[in-house]
Amino acid sequence: MLKQKRMDTRHRLAVFASGNGSNFEAIAAACADGRLDAQVVLLVCDRPGAYVCSRAERLGVETFVFRPKEYASKEAYEAEIVRMLDERGVELVCLAGYMRILSRVMLDAYGGRIVNIHPSLLPAFKGAHAIRDAFEYGVKVYGVTVHYVNDELDGGKIIAQRAFDYTGTDAEELEAMVHAVEHPLYVEAVAGLLAAGDR
Ligand code: GRF
Questions:
Q1: Nearest partner of 131 among 123, 118, 119, judged by Cα
Q2: If residue 84 lies in a helix (H) or strand (E), which one and from where to where?
Q3: SS3 content of the chain, % helix, strand, coil (to 5)
Q4: Which of 14, 36, 41, 136 is deepest in the core (most CB within 10 A)?
């Protein structure tokens, strides 16, 4: 059977998230207002009930929510995800607070087309508690990194970084500042990747 041609020529993104989803919403909003020539065709979420799912519902983004424990292995649920990404013609996968390490199944299928945002100036403060770790260390310059995802935790090639000074002592204030830097940086980095792909 002939594949039906897609009428919408915008780039096709998927976002993976586990929690709050403010970066997901920043990307979806940039798609909606034209800053990104793209659409989020799928949100993948490994935590039923996560707030990001409510955001997706409000924004009309299709969501695949799953419980990892209901699958025999990580490879098994990733194979299902890869099928969904393939079906939807996804060009770029944006991890945005997705709290799982990808297996070879995702990396082999989408390697080089998976990016992540991390709330530190990599290679400093890798891991799940980067903001807290940097704060407790007492750094005075914080930042955010967008990078490719490979099989090394927070170790892929850096795409974009942005730094800012913070000498205060309020962890919540710091976290809000990190998120405020993340959202535009992620959108700009994705826009740059899509534009580079068009050339
Ligand atoms: C962000 O700080 C991101 O850098 C990290 O996870 C957090 C996700 O926040 N990878 P949100 O769910 O997008 O609000």
A1: 119
A2: helix 74-87
A3: 40, 20, 40
A4: 14
Q: Which of 118, 147, 179, 183 is catalytic?
A: 118
Atom of ligand 1 nearest to the CA of 51: 12
pLDDT > 80? residue 109:
yes
E strands in the chain: 11-17, 38-45, 63-65, 92-95, 114-118, 141-148, 158-165
Expressed in angstroms and rounded, the spacing between residue 25 Cα and the centre of ligand 1 is 11
Catalytic (active site) residue 129:
no
Residue with tokens 């013609």: 89
Angle, to 10 degrees, between the axis of helix 51-59 and the axis of helix 22-32? 10
Confidence class for position 123, pLDDT limits 50, 70, 90: very high
Q: Is the pLDDT of residue 1 over 70?
A: no
Nearest CA to ligand 1 atom 6: 97
Confidence of residue 50 (pLDDT cuts 50, 70, 90): very high
For 15, the token pair is 């976002």
Centroid of ligand 1 to alpha carbon of 116 (angstroms): 9
